[in-house]
Write a structure and sequence with these properties.
alpha+beta
């Protein structure tokens, strides 16, 4: 049942999940992808750069996260470390409150749902 409905639920929650990961600690893209794949791959599907980085850019453009560029010792390149802004922390607090209320409401319907083989 991996159809369009499941994809929409995943898309709708991924921004909140990324904000939660960034709220825990300043982090960089590859670390975010690794953590997503380690903890949520069975439900979310495997996180890929092509999915995660556009969301990070969108969150940054919205002023919810900021990035700090640090030279990478390993290859001479650089890493972007992401952290929440004050606006991002406030937004995430509101989003989590909404999510808890939303899932509580949905759970009430699911708990009362009776499936019959006669359908």
């Amino acid at each position: 049942m991996e159809g369009n409905y499941c994809q929409q639920f995943k898309k709708g929650s991924l921004e909140m999940i990324l904000l939660c990961l960034i709220a825990k600690k300043e982090t960089y893209g590859y670390e975010i992808i690794t953590e997503l794949n380690r903890t949520g791959a069975s439900v979310l599907g495997f996180a890929k750069e092509g999915t995660i980085y556009p969301i990070l850019y969108r969150l940054q453009n919205s002023g919810l996260i900021q990035c700090r560029i640090v030279p990478a010792a390993a290859n001479g390149g650089s890493k972007k470390y992401y952290s929440l802004t004050a606006k991002g922390r406030e937004f995430l607090t509101e989003l989590i409150a909404f999510w808890k209320e939303y899932t509580s409401c949905v759970d009430k319907f699911i708990d009362g749902c009776i499936l019959s083989e006669e359908i």
